[in-house]
């Protein structure tokens, strides 16, 4: 008689359910974010080339400014999840409010710098004389929405820490729809041009922030958590975020160096690099969704002093990361004849792109491990180690990448250097998780 296949252990099934319940909505919310810029580009593009060029410069500046503060989401998720695991929801929401107040203060500081410096920033980014006025207009107006954008980050971290990734998905979908409608109405209906696009985005961002605040405030009142700013709590949130800021800046430096090197290789190589980088970023969103689940789940387990559960969840998420990476790698190889022509019809760009794309496909399982372990250590509040690990990675990657134009190999060699970067990250993260030093339990690290 044929024996039935063994069913997965109960703990594995439980981890799978948790990962899916948190990662799938998180992925939807992550994908919705870059669609804001795509909608703005599609609407402004019909106004003319100078307007679109101005939007491109302003959007790059805004994206850079906001992404620097992504620690507001990461650090808040870990801190809130620990307190949830410890069974102290009041303290968890109070911790989340400290992160939100920090976001407001940072947002106001960014506005104070951006408004007077906008023309200079646009010039530094190389906007043409025709595009510069449009870029300055868009940047100044859109900067008014930065506090709301940072509040959204921090509040997203609160809800993720509370094991809720569905609400951020719903808010992101609503914000995307509102952004599109407002942009179309203000740009063309009201005749405000690129200023209308900026105002539409600001209104949509403020609406999203208000929606998040309503949810968080209701939770605070239900559990008796104070909504008032607490200087000590805000300072603690900032201190927890500094190592993650260093990590993020180091990672940004890696991407900027890669783009700068690709530009030195020639127009064909930089065009192919941009296509690969866009695809790489899309896959990163999917893998980052698992990492977000890791932040919330690991933080909760450690808050509950369940190191065994944290280890099991980490192991299972690594398996998910590897499996996802294998699937993505196969899809890249099989689908490349279909999607590459959508980006470019230039045969020389396609010829340059294909071998580098194979390198990216082969390294997706490594990327899966890196993203998952990064999320696990963030959930454990192991920010200082992540900062040092990323600085080491940058120190290894930078000289290798900068030598690429001299040593030869073109874009494929550059993406081999990117692979080296991911291998170094994987090694540093794996050594840390294997050591067990990240398994610090309690409501606060």
Automatic annotation (TrEMBL):
Gene Ontology molecular functions: antiporter activity; xenobiotic transmembrane transporter activity
Compartments where found: Cell membrane
Listed InterPro entries: DinF-like (IPR044644), MATE_fam (IPR002528), MdtK-like (IPR048279)
Membrane-crossing segments per the record: 20-39, 51-80, 100-121, 141-162, 169-191, 197-217, 244-263, 275-299, 320-340, 352-373, 385-404, 410-431
Keywords of the record: Cell membrane, Membrane, Transmembrane, Transmembrane helix, Transport
Protein name stated in the entry: MATE family efflux transporter
CDD domains: MATE_DinF_like
Membrane topology type: Multi-pass membrane protein
Organism phylogeny: Bacteria, Bacillati, Actinomycetota, Actinomycetes, Kitasatosporales
Keyword Transmembrane helix: yes
Chief place where the protein resides: membrane
A GO cellular component annotation in the UniProt record: plasma membrane
Residues making up the signal peptide according to the UniProt record: none
Superkingdom, natural source: Bacteria
Protein family per UniProt: Belongs to the multi antimicrobial extrusion (MATE) (TC 2.A.66.1) family.
Keyword Nucleus assigned: no
């Amino acid at each position: 008689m044929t024996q039935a296949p063994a069913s997965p252990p109960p703990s594995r099934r439980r981890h799978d359910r948790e990962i899916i319940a948190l990662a799938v909505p998180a992925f939807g919310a992550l994908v919705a974010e870059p669609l804001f810029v795509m909608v703005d580009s599609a609407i402004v593009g019909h106004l003319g080339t100078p307007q679109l060029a101005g939007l491109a410069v302003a959007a790059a500046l805004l994206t850079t400014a906001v992404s620097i503060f992504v620690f507001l989401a990461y650090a808040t998720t870990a801190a809130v999840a620990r307190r949830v695991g410890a069974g102290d929801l009041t303290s968890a929401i109070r911790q989340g409010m400290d992160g939100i107040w920090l976001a407001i203060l940072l947002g106001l500081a960014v506005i104070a710098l951006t408004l007077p410096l906008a023309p200079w920033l646009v010039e530094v980014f190389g906007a043409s004389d025709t595009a510069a006025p449009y870029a300055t207009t868009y940047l100044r107006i859109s900067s008014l929405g930065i506090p709301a954008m940072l509040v959204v980050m921090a509040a997203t971290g609160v809800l993720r820490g509370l094991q809720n990734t569905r609400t951020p998905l719903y808010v992101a979908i609503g914000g995307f729809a509102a952004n599109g409608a407002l942009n179309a109405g203000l740009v063309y209906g009201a005749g405000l041009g690129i200023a209308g696009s900026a105002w539409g985005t600001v209104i949509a961002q403020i609406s999203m922030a208000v929606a998040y605040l309503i949810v968080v405030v209701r939770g605070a009142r239900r559990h008796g958590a104070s909504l008032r700013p607490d200087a000590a709590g805000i300072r603690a949130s900032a201190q927890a975020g500094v190592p993650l800021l260093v990590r993020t800046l180091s990672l940004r430096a890696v991407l900027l160096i890669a783009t700068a090197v690709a530009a030195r290789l020639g127009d064909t190589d930089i065009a192919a690099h941009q296509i690969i980088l866009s695809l790489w970023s899309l896959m990163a969103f999917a893998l980052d969704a698992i990492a977000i689940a890791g932040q919330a789940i690991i933080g909760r387990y450690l808050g509950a002093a369940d190191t065994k559960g944290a280890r099991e969840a980490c192991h299972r998420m690594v398996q998910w990361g590897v499996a996802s990476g294998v699937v993505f790698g196969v899809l890249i190889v099989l689908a490349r004849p279909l999607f590459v022509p959508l980006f470019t019809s230039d045969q020389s760009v396609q010829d340059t792109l294909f071998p580098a794309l194979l390198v990216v496909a082969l390294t997706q399982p490594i990327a899966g491990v890196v993203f998952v372990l990064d999320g696990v250590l963030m959930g454990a509040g192991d920010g200082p180690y992540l900062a040092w690990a990323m600085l080491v990675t940058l120190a290894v990657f930078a000289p290798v990448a900068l030598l690429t134009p001299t040593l030869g190999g073109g874009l494929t060699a550059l993406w081999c250097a990117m692979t080296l970067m991911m291998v170094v990250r994987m090694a540093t993260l794996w050594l840390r998780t294997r050591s067990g030093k990240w398994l610090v339990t309690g409501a606060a690290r």
